[in-house]
Amino acid sequence: MLEVKNVVKKFGDITALDHINLKVKKGEKIVVIGPSGCGKSTLLRCINLLETPTSGTIKYEGVETINIKRNHLSQKIGMIFQSYNLFNHLTIIKNITLVPIKLKLMTKEEAYKKAYKLLDEMKLKDKAGRYPRELSGGEKQRIAIIRSLILEPEVLLIDEPTGALDPENIKDVLKLLEDISDTGMTMVVVTHEMNFASHFADRVVFMEHGKIIIDGDAKEIFVNPKNVRLKEFLSKIRS
To answer: What are the pLDDT digits (tens) for 8-42?
Structure first.
């Protein structure tokens, strides 16, 4: 479904991604872990063309993403950010429906109907007329997830979904991601929540210094990690 081949991303003299190779099959749940600054978020942003790789290729369904119109790619590959990226001057319902209406993927009536249905399913229907500043961090993250789901993407890229949340809201957001995965959604998640990763992921990718050090079965990696650096990382993050 997704293929990242020999991707390099440089910011000036800094190499953020160093010849990354990754294949994602339909329906897979992949968790990307590693120390801060290792290139995890940059990898997601390159897959969705929010950043343009310096070299290498990224293919979606066999077609290079640089040859896919940005609007079409964003419908197929959704992105959920740590910082929510909601528009503070728009109400929640307008935040959710802005893209499908602007891209003429739905009429205003269709978009609002679908948005209210999703809000109702997540018990947030009463927040439709409010503004982001009036919501908690957990509510804002769930709204950001709804905003991605309204486009019915085939792949979800999720960057540190709990990074900006307090402990009380983390559990709710992680449960929501598990519910979404149960629908068969293909998901690539960057997270530091190891307990979540250990039972959520099919595969785990461990990155360091812009490289993929380990790419393997989640159970094997968490139960019996053989790589010394991976053992050290897991020991520190779990303590």
So the answer is: 999 999 999 999 999 999 999 999 999 999 999 99
Q: Give domain status of residue 120, yes or no.
A: no
Rg (CA), the chain: 18
In a domain, 122, yes or no: no
Residue 88 DSSP label = T
Alpha helices, DSSP H, located in 77-216: 92-102, 108-121, 137-149, 167-181, 194-200
Domain hosting 173: range is: 2-85+153-238
Q: Which residue blocks in 17-87 are alpha helix, DSSP H? A: 40-47, 70-76
Q: Give, to the nearest 10 degrees, the angle between helix 137-149 and helix 92-102.
A: 20
What phi and psi values does residue 3 have, to the nearest 5 degrees? -135, 120
217 CB-near residues (< 8 Å, 6+ apart): 202, 203, 204
CB atoms within 10 A of CB 92: 26
Domain annotation covers residue 123: no
Name the DSSP class of 11.
Answer: E
